[in-house]
Amino acid sequence: MGKGGENLTDIADRHGSVRGSAKHRYSEIYHMLFHPLRQRKISMVELGVLDAPSKGDENVEKRSGSAPSVKMWQEYFPKAHLHGLDLVDVSWLNNDRFTAYQCDVDDRDQISDAADEIHPAPTIVIDDATHASQHQQNAFLELFPRMESGGLYIIENLRRQPDELEKPQFTKTAALFRSWMAHKRFSHCDPLLEAEFNALSEDISGCIIEPVNFLKRRRDQVLVVHKK
């Protein structure tokens, strides 16, 4: 263990998180981004608390113990309070540093209602919910404006949209943020949503998009947006 404490990847692996070395390796970039915040008393938001079910195992009750990220984040951030938004009730996970909110990311009003309960303003938001583009964008539009200055907004599995949820012809989240990176302006098939995103543009100091396992031949998977 180095002077800065145990690496997030080691913690992720110990708790069985897919963010660790066995699968996505997101923990590597997260450790680089989050280490300066590690000892701060921050609010952190995670959308999608339960691990995705294995194929053929959609029973939520069977997955009731499958939330390794809660223990992982609470160990990594010993002073943080984690707020978890999920479609199902995960309040059995509540403790003095974790609060669950039952929330359908298809409904912006529900996201807004949950966000109104989160204090202080979030420093980190990680979207690991449905991965459908419209849901990712709903959450960003509601949560990003509420974040503190200097906060980091992250969307995982950026190009793994589920066919059964993705809206046909709807602008993909990766393409949306690629347009901002190229032109400092969002381009969207829906002019109303385009206007909403561009209204937030002046609050974005920059963003990065990384491919899976950081291999350039792989598809974009992690978006990190830094708030001014």
Textual characterization of the structure:
The protein is an alpha/beta fold. The chain folds into 2 domains: 1-39, no CATH class; 41-52 and 81-227, Vaccinia Virus protein VP39 (Rossmann fold). The protein has 7 helices and 7 strands. The chain has a 7-stranded mixed β-sheet, sandwiched between helices. Helix 1 runs antiparallel to helix 3 and helix 4 runs parallel beside helix 5. The model is unreliable at 54-58 and 60-64 (pLDDT under 50). It comes from Roseovarius gahaiensis. This is Methyltransferase domain-containing protein.
Task: Describe this structure in a few short sentences.
InterPro entries: SAM-dependent_MTases_sf (IPR029063). With 228 residues, the protein is of the alpha/beta class.
Report the end-to-end length measured between terminal Cα atoms.
33 Å
Q: How much strand?
A: 15-25%
Low-confidence stretches: 54-58, 60-64
Order of helices and strands: HHEHEEHEHEHHEE
Summarize model confidence as the mean pLDDT: 90
Kindly name the structural category.
alpha/beta
Protein name: Methyltransferase domain-containing protein
